[in-house]
What we know:
- α1 packs across α10 and α6 (216-226) runs antiparallel to α7.
- This protein starts with a helix and ends with a helix.
- β11 (230-232) and β12 form a beta hairpin.
- The model has no long low-confidence stretch (mean pLDDT 96).
- By secondary structure, the protein is α+β, with helices and mostly antiparallel strands.
- It has helices at residues 3-19, 29-41, 51-55, 118-135, 158-162, 216-226, 266-284, 309-317, 335-341, 365-378; strands spanning 45-48, 62-66, 73-79, 93-97, 106-110, 144-150, 172-178, 184-189, 191-200, 204-205, 230-232, 235-244, 250-251, 254-263, 290-299, 302-303, 326-330, 346-350, 362-364.
- The protein is 31% helix and 28% strand.
Amino acid sequence: MTAAAELRARLRDDLLALCAIPSPSRAERAVVDHVAAACRSLGASVREDDAGQRVGGDAGNLIAELPGGRPERVLVNAHVDTVPLVPGVPLDPIAEAADDSAGERVLVRCRERQVLGSDDKAGVAIVLELLRRAAATPVDDRPTLVAVFTVGEERGLLGAQALDVAALRADLGFVFDGEVGVGEVIAAAVFKQAITLRVLGRRAHAALEPERGVHALLAAAAVVQAFPLGRDGDVVANLGCVEGGGASNVVPDEVVLTGEARAFDEHALDALLERIERRAREAVGPLEASVEFASERLYDGYDLGDHVPPIALLRAAAPAHGIALGTVRSIGGSDTNVFNRRGVPTVNVGIGMHDIHSVDEWIDVRDLARACAWVGDALGLA
Ligand SMILES: [Zn+2]
């Protein structure tokens, strides 16, 4: 077998083993133990932090360090949790050769209608392979690799937010959680804010004295109408949930609307939030209702520009792999947002995941191998 075929076979086997272990957010114990054993077998020192207790999960973030003689400390990250599985359907990942002339494409998917979890087990497989390659590189020739396997990413970057990033002392970082193709990296991502609009009316008997009531549901409808739903240039906002009301013979006095807003630019996000609050107040005023507006930052965005070290390294190594590096922006968040906010310039590398968060999810092992070989070269591994 050629070295390239061996790499694909290892990644296929690692990915199948990882995907076969259920690990929805806050229930990552089994996969963390599996990954810890793999890291130890490669000679890395392994520790687990207390994020599990802090976020209500059964496992913490796993940090595996493989020391090198070069001065850089390089963060490599993937998250071990997945979105929830479909209840009652077996988790049975399979690898199938695709119909291509070179015979290099191998597609991994679930046999049954189940979520594969290549988001982000594929990233985990890549990080393990980079550790393996670093371990096979003479110590003096390699940087220190700080591999971080985060928990709870799918529930709002919980593990990364609970992680002591400063303690990693990383100089630069690579996250392998990009749903874009191999060759594309996510160099910018949004700020995200949670929004709560509490619409208050006045309670009254709906038949005896409806005139005394101020209908909170009616006022909430006005708030929804006035809300800047959807995309507006570079910002996007949504209301996703309505709660309130009660008995059918009562004019309801409270309705709570919850939603979110995202923007690439923090000032644009602030302006959007101001607009949401002002429009809500203007909408309920004529109805004699009131509204309490609250919002909370869920995560900060980032914009790396084109010349930060992780992107420069990837760009330099790209031509040898037939890759023309493309930088893209993501309207979603990832652990990359947290690492950047806490001072480690980190890029999210596309690994070719398809149809993530669905039972149609699949990934091509050849894409994993390309991403892995490229980043390994960018890091100067043997
Ligand atoms: Zn992910």
